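Hi Y.,

Following your request, here is the sequence exactly as I used it, all 98 residues.
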Amino acid sequence: MRVLRYAPEGERRAFQERLRCFQSRIRVLDYKLGEIETDGDSSKAQVRVLVTGHGWTDLTAWESLWEETWTLENQRWTLRLDFEPFASLPAACEAASR
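Below is the corresponding structure, written out as C-alpha cells. Let me know if you'd prefer a different format.
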C-alpha cells in the first residue's frame, strides 16, 4: 500500500486499517481526479476525486466525491482524506466481524 507513505506518521496504522476495511467492502470501478486547487499557499493543496464503486455483494454502482487535502510539512507531502464513510470504517468493520 504505497499510499501509506503519504499518511501522517502518527496516523499510518489507523489509515492502513481503514484502507484494508474499505478494500474488503468496496470495489472501485473508476475514479476521476479533479484539478489541484490551492489558495495561494504552496504548502497546501486540495484535490476532488469522483469515485465510482460498489459493494462486493452489490450489483448497483454508486458515485461519491472525495476531497483529498495534501499538506507540505518538513519537506514531505502528507495526505488527509475528507470522506466521512472512510473515516468511520474501522468501527463498521469491528461491528460486522462480531
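The mean pLDDT is 81.

Thanks again,
Q.
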